[in-house]
Write a structure and sequence with these properties.
With 395 residues, this protein is an alpha+beta fold. Helix content is 46%, strand content 13%.
Length: 395
């Protein structure tokens, strides 16, 4: 793969930098939330944010170009400018609706999701259905022109804040488990939906249990066809894994790790001056660069109409592993200071080293979200390397 960006990309970088110089930061005294929202609207209009989303749905609508996306990310980070919103709605549901949704679903939900007016949560995992997602038991029965949903979801990020849920339910109880599922959109603000926060060891409460007792959603709020939920859910899972395995994510984390190594001291000197710390950083940087180029390869193949195959699984696995390596070195750098911090998860969010303590503990969960690391290893082993299926492997 040719990684020489060429002179046209230097001109594009200058164009992005000029835009940022004119539009960010906001004037002194401006409301931060309003300023960020206004900036995002200008950046979308300029084609710098939500580039894969058509303009009619509130996106920047630009041809896919991983090099330009990288330049935008780097220049926005350098300027400290707001980037695309994160969360299940933006990173998972929007691309799913673009690929499989009805036109009215795209028109109604995508623009307000990109602007942050609508918050989504994902209704996948259940107490008895995690890695083996297709064994889920939450059911939906069609009564007239509505689906009536009964069951329970767990580990549901942002359910306590969400306006809507995209949910995988069983609509065909007599069909094989992968063929009896449907993918619905559900209003969270209704009788029959109960959200119970799950307190984490970080002190945060972004995960929840969701109990569905006769919750209702219109019959046409189905994405794809009845019984095709597994295929639709795989589209969503692909984008969840892409988000977890994003080289942008790991590059940002690594840059912050280097800053941490410069700021903390060991034996009276900056930690980064120690040879062993520099060696540890260099090892991690090697993994980060490998993932960057693997991500470029996958994007280049997609742009050329080729199927990236198992590169997505590889990037998801590597993203989780790199995140854990970064967290482990951060823990070493912070040392005992991590034991004497105020309670985590307090209102206002974690600051300073508290962010790293959250990262250290959260990195373990990333190895499970969107398909566990062991599942990714099995997929790579069986489908790429031709190894025999192991005993007790999940579906």
């Amino acid at each position: 793969m040719n990684l020489d960006l060429g002179p046209e990309y230097a001109a594009f970088r200058a164009h992005v930098a000029d835009f940022l110089a004119r539009h960010w930061p906001p004037a002194p005294g401006a409301d931060p939330a309003q300023a960020a929202a206004a900036f995002r609207r200008e950046a979308v209009e300029a084609g710098f944010l939500y580039r894969s989303v058509p303009r009619i749905y509130g996106g920047g609508e630009q041809a896919p170009d991983p090099a330009r996306a990288r330049i935008i990310r780097e220049e926005f980070a350098r300027a400290g400018a707001p980037r695309e919103l994160e969360g299940p709605g933006v990173s998972m549901l929007v691309p799913t609706l673009l690929a499989r949704g009805a036109d009215w679903q795209k028109e109604r939900f995508i623009p307000k999701t990109l602007s942050g007016e609508i918050i989504w949560c994902q209704g996948y995992s259940e107490p008895g259905a995690g890695s083996d997602l297709a064994s889920l038991r939450t059911k939906a029965v069609l009564e007239g022109d509505e689906w009536v949903i009964t069951g329970q979801k767990v580990w549901t990020t942002l359910a306590h804040l969400a306006h809507y849920m995209f949910i995988l339910v069983r609509t065909e109880p007599d069909a094989p488990k992968h063929e009896g599922l449907s993918y619905l959109l559900l209003d969270m603000k209704q009788p029959g939906v109960t959200v119970r926060p799950l307190k984490q060891m970080t002190g945060g409460r972004e995960f929840n249990e969701v109990f569905l007792d006769g919750a209702r959603t219109p019959a046409h709020w189905i994405v794809g066809k009845r019984g095709e939920g597994w295929a639709v859910s795989r589209t969503t899972l692909k984008h969840e894994r892409d988000a977890i395995g994003s080289s942008a994510r790991t590059e940002d984390m690594f840059a912050k790790l280097v800053q941490l190594a410069r700021s903390v001291e060991i034996d009276g000197a900056p930690a980064i001056e120690r040879a062993d710390i520099r060696q540890a950083l260099a090892r991690i940087e090697g993994y980060v660069l490998a993932q960057r180029y693997s991500s470029f390869r996958a994007q280049s193949m997609s742009n050329a109409g080729e199927e990236p195959g198992l590169i997505g699984a590889l990037n998801k696995l590597n993203g989780a592993e790199i995140g854990h390596r970064i967290a482990a070195l951060a823990q070493e750098l912070i040392g005992d200071d991590g034991l004497s911090m105020p309670p985590l998860g307090r209102k206002g969010g974690a600051r300073g080293h508290e962010k790293w303590v959250n990262q250290i503990m959260g990195s373990l969960g990333v190895a499970i979200a969107g398909g566990s690391s062991n599942i990714q290893r099995n997929v790579i082993a069986e489908r790429a390397l031709g190894l025999p299926r192991g005993h007790g492997d999940g579906a």
